[in-house]
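pinging the channel bc i need a second pair of eyes. not urgent but kinda urgent?? the chain im working w is below, pasted from the shared doc
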Amino acid sequence: MGARQARFREQYVSEIHPWYSGPVHVGVMYTVGISVIAWCASRMQNPTWEWALVIPVFAFSNLFEWWIHKYVMHRLVDVWALRAIYDRHTRQHHQYFTDNEMTVGTTREWRIIFFPWRALITFMALGTPFALALGWLVNPNAGYILMVTIVGQYLIYETFHYCCHVHDNWFVRYMPFVNTIRRHHAVHHNKGVMMQVNMNLTFPIADWLMRTSDLDRGLAGHLFNGYSMKHVKPELREKIEKHLGDADAMDQQETAVARAA
């Protein structure tokens, strides 16, 4: 870890409120999310074809995840809420984590990984009018399934992001999709390419579709790539190597996502 990153981490942690608890933060978020999913599921009346709505809602969520990461989290928009998102992500999260040091060591550091509790409330509030409209236009099952998918996708986002910033273990190394996004996100934290590539944080579908992935592979190859750096685009490989500044840079990049403290 570089001296600048170490100083930033020390300062950031020192400014966390003494009452902050990572387990409480995360526990409340998952409790609320799972409770909403359970409540919606309990209100459904023998849904059948309505489950097909999961596919377009999931696809839209994946594209929205990509869009907000690329155009809000990494682009300064001079609107209060959007500016706050940019500050927290680009000016804090990307200072705290680099591709050379992606992990945390204490639960207090969870504050820099997980969104504030109000993020889930905001996404549910944004989704509620659409769920109500769908429930009225189609049937109540459709509205409940829409809300279940929105909340479920948000919880997947938070879970995958957390898996990107923990020390290597058998689960994150061998679990399909998780190992893929772990490498995918580590490359995104390389300062030579972070504004350009790897904006997805669940499944890199939109990155593949919008050609903002660091990999030169098909969709299946993207989803099941794991830790491999074999298919990195040549022009991006050069930028990553230049940033790491080491003859063995690509080997370091491939192992950085798996390196323990």
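so The two ends are 10 Å apart (CA to CA). and DSSP finds twelve helices and no strands in the chain. — does that match what u expected or am i reading it wrong
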